[in-house]
Amino acid sequence: MKKFLSFAGFLGLLFISCSDDDTVPEEMTMTPEPVVYTSGSADFSNYVSLGNSLTAGFSDNALFIDGQENSYPNMLASNFALAGGGTFNIPLMADNLGGATLGGQPILGNRLILSFATGSPLPIAVEGQGSTEISNVLSGSFNNMGVPGAKSYHLLAPGYGNLAGVPIGAANPYFARFASSPNTTVLADAAAQNPSFFSLWIGNNDILGYVASGGAGTDQTGNLDPSTYGGSDISDVNVVAGSINGILQTMTANGAKGVIANLPDVTSIPFLTTVPYNPIPLDAATAELVNGAYAAYNGGLAQIQALGLITAEELAQRTISFAAGATNAAVIIDEDLTDLTAFNPALINMRQTTADDLLVLTSSSFIGTLANPADPTSINGVAVPLSDQWVLTPEEQATANTALAAFNQVIESLATQYDIAFVDANTLFNGIRDSGFPLSDGSLVTTTFGTGGGFSLDGVHPSPRGYAILANAHIEAINAKYGSNLPGVNPINFTGLYID
Known about the structure:
InterPro entries: SGNH_hydro_sf
GO molecular function: hydrolase activity
Keywords: Hydrolase, Signal
Helix content: 25-40%
Distance between the termini: 48 Å
Signal peptide: 1-20
Number of helices: 15
Protein name: SGNH/GDSL hydrolase family protein
């Protein structure tokens, strides 16, 4: 820079004698024209969002103020405000703990934080009692109608927020806090606001309960009566289709435009991909002891196979063997194996996990504990097989993925039928899982539990940064469909992990 200035001075001396009238023009600074954001053919003046915990901003296994304010609908609302959007009211919890009481009795747990008390990071519930009292019903209407725990048909169920109980399952405490009346529906309260624009993301829980329970629920395909469903069941696709169609029919009746998202692959979330299939460490002496205990079981299987009652492949699959080292597979119950108990009651449906099995996140604190504290040999996952709730087998994964494909086909078809914007959340999250999501600062958001930045500590719900990526996918779909030019949000401005 100094050389440049010296050179400029030299030029000035050279030409000063030529003309006293010559002047050097001042450098012009161009001020960019301010961007004018428009809504295109949409009207964002009164935006209402419908859905479940993903819509509400649930994170770290709880609903709390910071999470609600970092929900993807609230991010959308901040963009809509640039193009005529109005206020966006949220039924905020009372604090950032996330827990809640009913009549003074705790019914909802606090959010998770990382504890380093054991030397390695471990998610634990934050201490304290949440000050949200469910019976203190909030007044007014709310733009974020996301209700944690809601399945597709719950949004149309009268009395879903009635603390006295409802025909389809128990009352939802989250909706009970802001329902306009005990016997209203989520959809009715949303439609009563006469929204000009809406978002809908529903159907995840129609599969997620099954997956999160390790496939312990029932696939209700063919059963059109949701009042008979359990919380861990997969909903019939016709029930899901009818529910979403009813929601869209109501929300678009007065000309409102909107956006709907399909469902991500719930078998690839950190809740199911974090715990390895072979998490059990054993020394040589213990491995030898355990193998001796399973010798009779393995011998009985061999006899059954010799009789032609099971294949050689199933014999190999069911034979249990441990070795000295840190990567032994867990012993589990698998109901899809051939039932041999009629021939030998001791030959229960046991096998060890393989790389094709998915252990649920919560199994990490259960495997290796004692089934009977008085018996040091009753080690869960070793001497005592893990029950169905701890592992999602390949057959159960196939069941969930079949439902997912059917649900997503319905959602995309209804988006076309009602001529609204469509977000392919499934492809988005698959991309984050497979190769990560690059940010403008060069960092990469992944699905790695705790450190990836995409998911919260419950392994199911996104982090604020994950929700920001989802919000931008919505903005892109809305801009493409309605001709708006909303800018989106910067995921870097949102944390990948709440720090207590």
